[in-house]
Amino acid sequence: MRIFNTKSREKEEFQPIEPGHVKIYVCGPTVYNFFHLGNARPFVTYDTLRRYLEFRGYQVTYVQNFTDIDDKMIKRANADGITIKELADRFIKEYFYDADRLNIRRATFHPRATDSMAMIIELIQTLMDKGFAYEAEDGVYFSVAKMPDYGKLSHHNLEELEFDASDRLNQEGRKQNTLDFALWKKKKENEPFWPSPWGDGRPGWHIECSAMVKQYLGDTIDIHGGGQDLIFPHHENEIAQSECANGKTFVRYWMHNGFINVDQEKMSKSAGNFFTVRDLTQHYDYIILRFFMLGGHYRMPINFSAELLTAAQNGWARIRTCLENLEFISSSAPAELAEKATGAANDLAVAREKYRQAFIEAMDDDLNTADALAAIFELVRAANTAAAVNGLDLTSIRQTLDLLNELLDVLGLRVKEENLIPEDVMALVEARTQAKKQRDFQLADALRAQIQAKGFIVMDTPQGPKVSKA
Questions:
Q1: Dist CA 261 CA 270 (whole Å)
Q2: What residues pair up with 265 in beta bridges, in sequence order?
Q3: Helical H runs in 157-204?
Q4: Residue 141 DSSP class
Q5: Can you tell me the distance from the alpha carbon of 247 to that of 209, in angstroms, rounded to the nearest whole number?
Q6: Count of CB atoms within 10 A of residue 378's CB?
Q7: d(C-alpha 26, C-alpha 239), whole Å
Q8: pLDDT band at 334 (very low <50, low <70, confident <90, very high)
Q9: Is 274 helix (H, G, I), strand (E, B) or coil?
Q10: Burial 289-319 (b: 16+ CB within 10 A, else e)
């Protein structure tokens, strides 16, 4: 598999650090509101990457965080008259409601920034001890000048960055350099705070992700994903913090997805041109939204329009109709066809091999889901042609049906709505996971019993808890 690495600006052959095991970190949502279609794109993109790597035989440890402390969180919580935790709890629950229906699998770990405070403080202290950070009147800052290759991800000209930032940042008057960024912010009125060696306060945004990567995946990981808007400053600053603190390469492969645009402008809450996934599902099924996003290459922008969503709806209907036809033939055709091979069956066997390989080649080429879908449509066309021929053997039909379902599953495109696990059961599962992390095994066992009482079982796997009906 070849992946376009933002850092090198080239497609590179993917080789994980540990053979057979891939460690991935993806920047998750800031949980102060419902997520919009633009937010959903990276969630779908990297869920598909994970699925494909597992399809290819890798074990994947996948971490997607929740940012549950920042300026937006504080502003919304204060406006609603609730605590930061209450706000986070609400919108993490809402995230899972939408993500589950988009068929986005639960990450191996979904850490909250506020649960990683000890690691955050440890990293900042290491940077202070090594001379990469300094304390100022309002907090602790990373000294960009101390890192000679700062900017190696975004390829920005630092002199231009300093010029662009000088008017805005010099107003603060507390930094040594206009590009220096906050690691720790000392407490202000009406803000939550945590104790630290530098006084009560809260972490900066960038250090949160560095800490969660280190805590859950280690010093060096295989893949870090996110939207293009995170390249600078967020991911650039993650590199600076992590590499200066740990003395090791932080990430091997950087992947960044393109935007979803409305009238050629990036969909965003700040621009006011966004559509939440929840609102869109009043008009389109969740699976149509996923299909729409996979219809373009992840690095390319997608233009949002009702016409394109309708086209996605029609495309998905073609696939569903083919599968329904194959299932009908398989279940209702005379039994003697099961052993009757025909020329059409041979042609379909050739098509299966051809388009399975085309699917793999597309996905191996920097996760090209657009071409992978094209291969699926070609297989659908071949299946429709073959199914129209009298005497096509059932074995061939069933093999084609199985292959289509397998390839669609890699893309997270489920045909039949699975029985989603009730929200109250998932809340118990999450509580049990947290209890196990805190080594409160008595509580974990009690929560397991509550889950079983509701008719579900939970199994611990390397990929996280797996819930199913009893």
A1: 13
A2: 262
A3: 158-169
A4: E
A5: 17
A6: 15
A7: 14
A8: low
A9: coil
A10: bbbbbbbbbbbebbebeeeebeebbebbeeb
